[in-house]
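User: Could you go from structure to sequence for me? I need the amino acid at each position, not a summary. Structure tokens:
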């Protein structure tokens, strides 16, 4: 028997990264696949709050096992910005490219380029809430490189590599990324989980 998990995201890139990592015995559906097309509010001031908010929103609309991921990019020289505002850094309807261009512009001439991605996953499984976290250290490059990934991937160089996340395959990125690390923990938990 398999357990179905709803992934509370509208981000198709994230869904692809995660679908590739799910262990045997679990299946995943996205919000669009269960017919929930509403934009989910993200009004928290931390990744934890936002990821919980996404899960609570879905649970208010369906009886299901569900998880959400909230991710932010924290840049040292900017005091941790854009952080929880990563999706809206260049404005409410900013594209990934707008956000990347704004960050490159703001960082222009700044030598200290250290940054990290952090992900918090909230999982609601059989009525209980669990939390998993993952992060990756790296730096912001001075120009975009690579066509893969999404978001800030073309300008994030992880410490473990000399290529940006956008220059990696999905599997390479997942093996060292914030999301990959947080999901590895969730997967480990699921592998040992005994259904009620
Ligand atoms: P959902 O809330 O629907 O899951 P989202 O795109 O709004 O999707 P987040 O709030 O978690 O996702 O992420 C905020 C932004 O951070 C996102 O719009 C991207 O610009 C960036 N981001 C998230 N994960 C990333 C990754 O793995 N690589 C590069 N940028 C990422």
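Assistant: Here is the amino acid at each position, in order:
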């Amino acid at each position: 028997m398999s357990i179905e998990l709803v992934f509370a995201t509208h981000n198709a890139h994230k869904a692809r990264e995660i679908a590739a990592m799910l262990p045997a015995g679990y299946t995943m559906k996205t919000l669009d696949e269960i017919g929930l097309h509403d934009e989910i509010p993200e009004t928290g001031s931390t990744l934890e709050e936002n990821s919980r908010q996404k899960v609570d929103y879905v649970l208010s609309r369906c009886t299901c096992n569900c998880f959400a991921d909230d991710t932010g990019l924290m840049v040292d020289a900017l005091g941790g910005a854009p952080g929880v505002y990563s999706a809206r850094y260049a404005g409410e309807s900013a594209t990934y490219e707008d956000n990347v261009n704004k960050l490159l512009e703001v960082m222009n001439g700044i030598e200290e380029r250290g940054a990290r991605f952090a992900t918090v996953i909230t999982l609601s499984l059989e009525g209980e809430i669990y939390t998993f976290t993952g992060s990756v250290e790296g730096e912001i490059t001075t120009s975009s490189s690579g066509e893969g990934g999404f978001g800030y991937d073309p300008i994030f160089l992880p410490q473990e590599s000399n290529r940006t996340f956008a220059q990696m395959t999905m599997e390479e990125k997942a093996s060292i990324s914030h999301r990959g690390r947080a999901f590895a923990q969730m997967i480990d938990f699921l592998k040992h989980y005994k259904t009620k």
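One structural detail worth keeping in mind: The pocket of inosine 5'-triphosphate is lined by residues 9-11, 14, 42, 69-71, 86-87, 96, 99, 149-153, 165, 177, 179 (CB under 6 Å).
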